[in-house]
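STRUCTURE:
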């Protein structure tokens, strides 16, 4: 069974159970300021999990493109991916544990024909905040799961919450037995030895964690599930890694044919990072030195480094991109429609990186010459790390050039510095995730509304061709990216600021309505990635000055916003400018 067949089976099964199929949201999130990329299926649905009414009803199903970047440097082993697809079914205040468990078991054993003997599940063991989830365990037994294959674990394994407070609850995870020998007499789904592989997580959102750390029951109980497509595809095909499936194998084989110095690790990195980069570019991403543009740049440059390690001529890049479009085009038609942008962006970044490598080598030679003058024969780890961080100069290239010149390289200390750098990156990413996702405070809601006014003002002052390219909101400030071919003058910034404040002072009502997508667009409503919206959409209007497709939430009237102040205007990436602003109450 191929990946696209698994996806279609999933969507059609849940459609038969009354779920509406909604399209995947883009990798670049439009309304979730907590992450650089969409990292889970629930991200685009946060407003609805928190109580907003979804235009498609209370039962929905989707496949969601996701990108997680905290493990970029782990890609190359047999399991890590940055880009992946998550299948999910959702109940927004509709069915709960019983139907969710029944559906999961039926889909796995009847639709995918997985023997029940291959499956085990875990449940929440209970603590002072919530009781042991014996209801879920009993429901699993009722659908045929033997009691001895039902395990209980604590919050670390079987509890889900978005951030530090907000909707949360116990989850039940489903594991697939690969048939490997147990690692010990106590081998179970939590040991991580590889015998058990998690394939599906069903989250039962029935609690709310309050600011004081207490838990109360939610009025609306939700079900949020996630099933990893690449992992399921690998297991059903009996493959050892995702790179052995049809998603990656043609690319892996092509790279092996082209390679002068073959390395399975380098081929995996090239195949994975090329796919991820292409997906980001297809959804509007472009390389830059900050935020998601920096992540894209890092993916492309790491891929190029490993093409060089393989000894593959970089002139093959265009052919490799076209091969990937051929492999993945049926699953992701946006790759076909954005072929030219993908090719041009990656080739341009390749040329820039070649210059970067040249500059890094010049810097390295300068440092080596200084050390020679001082009769020092060791290149410090700090210098190796500086070249890596500042110039993207690969440490293995630094080592090779330094050793050729008679120097020793302290890579052991470099590894420690690099590990510290990774930890900081992970913590930053986790904190970013925590910050906005669960934060539906009055401050963030006000800033969300203010982005609509700013977008409208830019269209009046700059050009009607200005469009939003992204936003990032916290409780303290807003950041707004928009298409523009020039640096804004002081006069333009003042006009934008004044116009937003004029609309705030006018006390414009903020209204919401549901309508057909085509009708919304014909009425003048704006949005990013219109093709990714379902047939029925939510439209927010602010008086007669702004109309946008959006998930919300927003204030009821602009007079709730306070004074709008632009703090900075700068470049974000080619053809995209960025405004940072605050609201003063």
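SEQUENCE:
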């Amino acid at each position: 069974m191929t990946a696209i067949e698994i996806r279609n089976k999933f969507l059609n099964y849940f459609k038969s159970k009354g779920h509406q199929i909604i399209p995947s949201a883009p990798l670049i999130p439009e309304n979730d300021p907590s992450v650089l990329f969409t990292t889970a299926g629930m991200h685009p649905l946060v407003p609805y999990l928190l109580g907003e009414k979804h235009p498609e009803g209370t039962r929905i199903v989707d496949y969601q493109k996701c990108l997680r970047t905290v493990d970029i440097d782990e890609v190359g082993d047999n399991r890590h991916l940055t880009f992946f697809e998550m299948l999910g079914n959702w109940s927004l205040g509709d069915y709960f544990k019983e139907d969710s468990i029944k559906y999961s078991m039926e889909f796995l054993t009847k639709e995918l024909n997985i023997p029940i003997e291959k499956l085990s599940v875990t449940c929440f063991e209970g603590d002072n905040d919530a009781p042991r989830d014996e209801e879920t365990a009993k429901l699993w037994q009722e659908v045929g799961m033997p009691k001895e294959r039902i395990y209980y674990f604590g919050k670390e394994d079987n509890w889900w919450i978005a951030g530090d407070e907000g909707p949360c609850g116990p989850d039940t995870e489903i594991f697939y037995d690969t048939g490997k020998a147990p690692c010990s007499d106590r081998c179970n789904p939590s040991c991580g030895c590889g015998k058990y592989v998690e394939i599906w997580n069903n989250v039962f959102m029935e609690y709310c964690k309050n600011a004081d750390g207490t838990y109360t029951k939610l009025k609306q109980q939700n079900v949020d599930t996630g099933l990893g497509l690449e992992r399921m595809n690998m297991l059903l095909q009996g493959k050892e890694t995702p790179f052995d499936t049809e998603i990656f194998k043609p690319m892996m084989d092509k790279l092996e044919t082209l390679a002068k110095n073959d390395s399975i690790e380098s081929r995996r990195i090239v195949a994975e990072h090329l796919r991820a980069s292409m997906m980001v570019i297809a959804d509007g991403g472009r390389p830059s030195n900050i935020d998601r543009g920096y992540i894209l740049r890092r993916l492309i440059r790491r891929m190029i480094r490993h093409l060089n390690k393989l000894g593959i001529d970089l002139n093959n890049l265009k052919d490799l991109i076209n091969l990937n479009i051929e492999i993945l085009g049926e699953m992701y038609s946006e790759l076909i429609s954005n072929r030219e942008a993908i090719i041009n962006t990656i080739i341009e970044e390749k040329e820039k990186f070649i210059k970067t490598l040249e500059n890094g080598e010049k810097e390295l030679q300068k440092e080596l010459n200084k050390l020679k003058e001082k009769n020092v024969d060791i290149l410090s780890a700090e210098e190796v790390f500086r070249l890596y961080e500042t110039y993207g100069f690969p440490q293995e290239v630094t080592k090779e050039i330094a050793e050729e010149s008679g120097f020793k390289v302290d890579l052991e200390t470099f590894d420690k510095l690099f590990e510290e750098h990774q930890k900081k990156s992970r913590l930053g990413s986790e904190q970013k995730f925590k910050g906005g996702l669960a934060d539906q405070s009055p401050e963030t809601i006000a800033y969300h509304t203010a982005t609509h006014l700013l977008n409208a003002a830019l269209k009046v002052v700059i050009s009607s061709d200005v469009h939003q390219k992204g936003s990032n909101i916290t409780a303290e400030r807003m950041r707004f990216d928009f298409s523009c071919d020039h640096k804004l003058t002081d006069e333009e910034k003042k006009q934008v600021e004044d116009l937003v404040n004029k609309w705030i002072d006018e006390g414009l009502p903020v209204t919401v309505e549901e309508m057909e997508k085509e009708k919304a667009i014909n009425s003048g409503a704006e949005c990013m990635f219109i093709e990714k919206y379902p047939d029925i959409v939510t439209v927010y209007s602010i008086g007669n000055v702004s109309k946008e497709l959006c998930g919300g939430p927003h204030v009821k009237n602009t007079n709730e916003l306070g004074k709008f102040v632009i703090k900075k205007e700068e470049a974000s990436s080619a053809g995209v400018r960025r405004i940072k602003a605050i609201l003063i109450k």
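REMARK: The chain is about 40% helix and 20% strand.
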